[in-house]
Amino acid sequence: MSRLGIFVDRKTMSNAEQLTALIRCRDVAENMGHNAEFLFPVDINRIPHMDALFIRTRTDPMNIAYVAAQMAAFHGIPVIDDPGSIRVCSDKINMYSHLIKKQVSIPRTVFLSKHDLTEKCVTRLFDTLGTPLILKEPSTSFSLRVEKVCDMDTFFHVARRFIKLSDWIVVQQYVESTYDWRIGVLGGRLLYVCKYTIPQETFKIQASVNGHIVYCGVQSVPEHDVPPHVIALGIDAANAIGNGLYGVDIKNSNGDACVIEVNDNPSIESGEDNCYPEVFGQIVTHLLKA
Q: 34 vs 2, 231, 260, 285, CA distance in Å?
């Protein structure tokens, strides 16, 4: 019997949807004949005694989950998410550089340093990338520090705020759409597909509007109802990062698909897997085979 550790924290377990998904994952592993147990940060020293580790909490390098991933990798224990994927996906400069290197389609993208924040440079960006522009602070997650700007003054206001947090910022062409495709990929193969419908109040899948958080709608979509080039692009994007578990966000505007983000710790608790009941079984198998 193999031992699967599911690394969580109290915030993860306090969310009803996430808790339900975690219990389902544990039950799937145990029905497959394995022993699955939840590990909290206080249990981190038990990781070397596991046969595999599945991290289900925030995974940026400043979080304890990254230490857990590093510990598993050091002891040769298969882990999702692996430290390399966490490092790449937590830094959008790094992530987009990987996609560009592998010639994966993304919106037209420019990286700016504080020395580039000149009127001449910004004017050229509006001329070449169009209006509006999307500005991103590289360490952002959950759509935080992602802003749409339509004029020079707003651009400088947002950019100067972001540049205090990072040496670089990302500037991208705006791609309009009412939904994003989310392509779940595991080990270079399709895991699930869903649509994230963008709330009317914003252009992001999650945003604060008038002091209230609004979330995207989630619709699980069968593979046969998804444009094949969207699936292929999602797999290519995931392979540009690594061989783990990824959620690739894609916009398919007028048939021209482009990758918006690659997430190393995709959510699987809001109905993303409704059309794909074997998701957790495939993850458990992938980890314990490794």
A: 5, 31, 37, 10
SS3 64: helix
Band of residue 177 on the pLDDT scale cut at 50, 70, 90: confident
Check if CATH label 3.30.470.20 holds for domain 91-104+176-263. yes
Q: What is the pLDDT of residues 108-150, one digit of tens each?
A: 999 999 999 999 999 999 999 999 999 999 987 766 789 999 9
Question: Tokens 């495709």 — which residue?
Answer: 181
Q: What's the half-sphere exposure (Cβ side, CA atoms, 13 Å) at 232?
A: 6
Dist. CA 83–CA 65, nearest whole Å = 10
Q: Give the span between the Cα atoms of 3 and 30, in whole angstroms.
A: 10
Q: What is the CA radius of gyration of the chain?
A: 19
Contact by Cβ (8 Å): 6, 54: yes
Task: List the one residue out of 74, 107, 79 whose CA is nearest residue 233.
Answer: 107
- pTM over cut 0.90: yes
* Ramachandran region, residue 145 (left: φ > 0; alpha: ψ -120 to 50; beta: rest): left
pLDDT digits (tens, 9 = 90+) for 38-51: 999 999 999 999 99
State which CATH number among 3.40.50.20, 3.20.20.450, 3.90.1150.10, 3.50.50.60 fits the domain covering 3-83.
Answer: 3.40.50.20
